Amino acid sequence: TELPPPGPWTVDPAHSSVAAVAQHLGISSVHGRFTHFSGAIEIAPDDVTKSRVEAVIRADSIDTGNGMRDGHLKSPDFLDVEKHPEITYRSTGVTAAAGSDRWTVHGELGMHGVVRPVDLDLAYLGTGADPWGGTRAAFRATAELHRDDFAMSYNQVVQAGIAAIGTTLKVELDIQAVQGESLPQG
After folding, report:
1. In this structure, are strands 114-129 and 37-43 parallel, antiparallel, or unpaired?
2. What is the CATH number of domain 7-179?
3. For the chain, where are the E strands, in sequence order?
4. For 22-70, what is each residue's pLDDT tens digit?
5. What are phi and psi of 182, to 5 degrees?
6. Could you give the C-alpha distances from 7 to 2, 52, 165, in angstroms and in order?
7. Prediction pTM value
């Protein structure tokens, strides 16, 4: 099983994305992303299963491409960014999954004042040099969240009993991390 070299890694927000997809009217998807976040990864030297991940997302940085919808998502019906300005994730363990580059990151997600266990399905995409003299590692992770688990049960039923907004969210993370505790300039 493979992970990047041991030590600290810093998530590079300029080359990473934190996105979510929700069903709309049962027939299409609405895509959103968070534009302000930070994260740190610690690859354990002797036992990679003891590696750690921490991330903080600014809840008010949600962007779905529609100002009215974004305003509603920031309201108490959903993220309630006034009371809960941060979404946090802290890993509690890492286990190998099928395939040498696949892992499950176990952790706790704090959102909307609720903390719940959430597993990330992680693919390690490789490590390489960057143009600024640093070393970068790339990861892709996905998870499925249930809005009700985080006290976000607002919905509107439209014709034929179809919910306007799906109850699950698919979270998609594309992460580049730079080796070390801070990002190089560039």
Report:
1. unpaired
2. 2.40.128.110
3. 7-11, 17-24, 28-34, 37-43, 52-58, 62-63, 86-96, 102-111, 114-129, 135-146, 165-179
4. 765 555 577 889 999 999 999 999 888 899 999 999 999 999 888 988 8
5. -145, 160
6. 14, 10, 41
7. 0.87
